[in-house]
Amino acid sequence: MYKIGRNDRCWCGSGKKYKVCHEKSDEGNMAKYVLEGYTIPDRSLILDPDRIEGIRKSSKVSIAIMDAIGEMIGEGVSTDEIDQLVYKMTKEAGGIPAPLNYEGFPKSCCTSINDVICHGIPDDTRLKNGDIINVDVTTILDGYYSDMSRMYLIGDVAQEAKDLCERTKEMMFAGINAIKPYTPVAEIGNVIHDIADKYHYGVVRALSGHGVGIGFHLEPVVNHYRSKKKSMILVPGMVLTVEPMINMGNFECDILDDDWTVVTRDGSLSAQWEHTVVVTETGVEILTI
Ligand code: MF3
Ligand code: CO
Ligand code: CO
Fold first, then answer.
1. Is the CB of 150 under 6 A from ligand 1?
2. Which end of the chain lies in a sparser environment, N or C, as judged by fewer CB atoms within 10 Å?
3. In 3D, which of 69, 263, 248 has the Cα closest to residue 161?
4. Separation of CA 32 and ligand 2 centre (Å)
5. Which is more confident, 34 or 45?
6. Could you identify the atom of ligand 1 that is nearest to the CA of residue 136?
7. What is the pLDDT of residues 49-99, one digit of tens each?
8. Nearest ligand 1 atom to alpha carbon 98
9. Residue 101 pLDDT greater than 60, yes or no
10. Which residues contact residue 245 at a Cβ distance below 8 angstroms, ignoring those fewer than 6 apart?
11. CB within 8 Å of 241: residues ≥ 6 apart
12. How many angstroms does the Cα of residue 121 sit away from the middle of ligand 3?
């Protein structure tokens, strides 16, 4: 096995010698990965503790908003009313709702009901008994982004729909727990896909998780499906989302004429959960919890 020289420049691009930079933490593994064809993260993706603290503060706002939605949501509530709550709470906290005007998106959060996979646009639609809905909130606070989503159940929800929501959460946590420093990011999708197969669910492929924190959608791409491709290696200080979209039917999707709303092609229900996490020296820490 090739080993990087102690006096060589570090793989991370710091310009420092390897021995005074990442030698201790990665035990020479990075050089092996480079030779095997994996992607090494750009230095800009490795955040220092101050910036991680900024994302943690932003996350606190996102969490408070999600909790407040849990209190007000129910049968008869419109998705516009949810959107207004997100806007108001974000502003009161001194933040900016990242979705608003993002690439032309017209509202402050995404509200995705039943067969809507993601990017549903809040409007005057009122929630009905038995609906399942994902609300996705991204807060920018002092320039730091935190991105999270949860499922909410409206009234009496069919057991199979409840199961879908619960198991999608289980898959998100399994994906998160697969994160360790010096592990390829594709491991997340491998773990999630194995569980989805067990339940005969479809794993959405067209949309992915992403690096986040000092921007909205950064590297790496976090796929939730199985892949043997040589992906990016995760290292301490990287911040990313894990946000599996899981369909009761197959994985295929369509985009509606509004150019945003993503729906299941077969009309089956879809669920999603999302957290923002940071890779640590020993594993992973969830910031939006
Ligand atoms: N919050 C979504 C994500 O998890 C992105 C929404 S983009 C928007 O990445 F424009 F639709 F808001
Ligand atoms: Co996201
Ligand atoms: Co999101």
1. no
2. N
3. 248
4. 30
5. 45
6. 1
7. 999 999 999 999 999 999 999 999 999 999 999 999 999 999 999 999 999
8. 12
9. yes
10. 117, 118, 203, 204, 207, 224, 270, 271, 272
11. 147, 209, 210, 212, 222, 274, 275, 276, 277
12. 13
**Nearest atom (ligand 1) to Cα of 241:** 4
What pLDDT was estimated at residue 22?
77
| pTM over the 0.85 mark | yes
Query: Does 120 contact ligand 1 (Cβ within 6 A)?
Result: no
70 Cα: distance to centroid of ligand 2 (angstroms): 20
Helices (DSSP H) in the chain: which residue ranges?
Answer: 23-26, 29-36, 49-72, 79-92, 159-177, 186-199
Mean pLDDT of 127-148: 98
* Cα–ligand 3 centroid distance for 273 (angstroms): 9
Average pLDDT over the chain, rounded to an integer: 95
Residue whose structure tokens are 């030779």: 35
Asked whether residue 2 carries a pLDDT value surpassing 60, the answer given is no
Ligand 1: does its nearest atom lie under 6 Å from the Cβ of 199?
Answer: no
Is the domain 22-286 a CATH 3.90.230.10 member?
yes
**Residue 110 alpha carbon to ligand 1 centre in Å:** 7
At a CB cut-off of 8 Å and minimum separation 6, what does 228 contact? 186
Task: Answer whether 140 contacts ligand 1 (Cβ < 6 A).
Answer: no
**Class of residue 130 by CB neighbours under 10 A (exposed 0-12, middle 13-18, buried 19+):** middle
pLDDT at 1: 39
Query: Angle at CA 231, nearest 5°, toward 229 and 237?
Result: 165
Ligand 1 atom 8: residue of nearest CA: 99
| Domains in the chain: boundaries | 22-286
Ramachandran area for residue 73 (φ above 0: left; ψ -120 to 50: alpha; else beta): beta
Q: Is 105 in the pocket of ligand 1 (CB under 6 A)?
A: yes
